[in-house]
Amino acid sequence: MPPNVSSVTEFQLLGFQNLLEWQTLLFAIFLFIYFLTVTGNVVIIAVVSQDQRLHSPMYVFLKHLSFLEIWYTSTIVPLLLANLFSHGQAISFPACMTQLYFFVFFGATECFLLAMMAYDRHLAICSPLHYSSLMSPEICTKLVAVSWLTGVGTGFLPSLMISKLDFCGSNQINHFFCDLPPLMQLSCSSVYITRMVIFILSIAVLCICFFLTLVSYVFIVSTILRIPSASGRMKTFSTCGSHLAVVTIYYGTMISMYVRPSDHLSPEINKIISVFYTVVTPLLNPIIYSLRNQEFKDAVRKKCNYERVR
């Protein structure tokens, strides 16, 4: 660090200050989406936990994904709402590093869980006779544990390397949360090694998980095409297509942000892309993975009828 230059002790998140006239509307929209996201995922956890018919591996993965989405979006959106309400939000250096860690932790864990869920669907559709042995409750529990533990470990390296950088110039982060690219741009020390390590780690997590997910869906689609019933094919295609759409949005936006050796997008484009994987996909996941599932909807109706009778 250069002499006689004090280090940064807090950052100023600029958020969407280029849209000052839209701050109130954006606040209302993000608050509504956050409410729907938390409510929808809490409902999934409650229904899956209480209905014995929904204790299969698919719903175990879904319950963990819902639990993850609540904390993932809660890592970002409350601070975003505070930023919109106050037209700028200060965050201390330790709080910024903490948010960064949990963002990477939850984001990586979601990648692993989505890959595991795609693998589970692959076994259920492509190997139905062997599914119960290939995806037993014990194996399911181990896969979930591996997803969470790998996510915990993945979060440490980027946050540790960023925390070791020198910040001695501007403290204004042109983003709505403490993200990797804008923090590296603010640093007054060399970020080449940090940037390359994060680039390689992003490839390892995002691209490998996305590749495994796509491979699973390729096998799923090839199996669906052999279904003799046209209505059966359309029903299965509809569900799998919805799953694949959400997965593609999540992985696609994340890869465009982090799997790049250098910055090539404007800060405003980065913010829009970030909204997709921090705000939109946590809302879409409960809708796609549950409300398009007849078995889950039947369980919800049963619970609603039971509460009405009681």
What key phrases describe this protein's structure?
disordered N terminus; 3 strands; 10 helices; three-stranded mixed β-sheet; 310 residues; mainly alpha; Rhopdopsin 7-helix transmembrane proteins; single chain
Question: Quick gist of this model?
Answer:
With 310 residues, the chain is mainly alpha-helical. It has 10 helices and 3 strands.
Would you mind describing this structure in some detail?
With 310 residues, the chain is mostly helical. It has one domain (10-302): Rhodopsin 7-helix transmembrane proteins (Rhopdopsin 7-helix transmembrane proteins), CATH 1.20.1070. 75% of the residues lie in helices and 3% in strands. It contains ten helices and three strands. The model is unreliable at 1-6 (pLDDT under 50). Putative odorant or sperm cell receptor. The chain crosses the membrane at residues 25-48, 60-80, 100-119, 139-157, 192-225, 237-259, 271-291. Keywords: Cell membrane, Disulfide bond, G-protein coupled receptor, Glycoprotein, Membrane, Olfaction, Receptor, Sensory transduction, Transducer, Transmembrane, Transmembrane helix.
Mean pLDDT: 85
Strand arrangement in the largest pleated sheet: 2-1-3
| Residues in helices, as a percent range | over 70%
Q: Do you know the CATH architecture?
A: Up-down Bundle
Blueprint of the fold:
Elements: E1 10-13, H1 23-50, H2 57-86, E2 89-92, H3 93-126, H4 131-134, H5 137-163, E3 172-173, H6 180-186, H7 192-224, H8 230-258, H9 267-291, H10 294-309
Parallel strand pairs: 1-3
Antiparallel strand pairs: 1-2
Helix pairs in contact: 1-2, 1-9, 2-3, 2-5, 2-9, 3-5, 3-7, 5-7, 7-8, 8-9
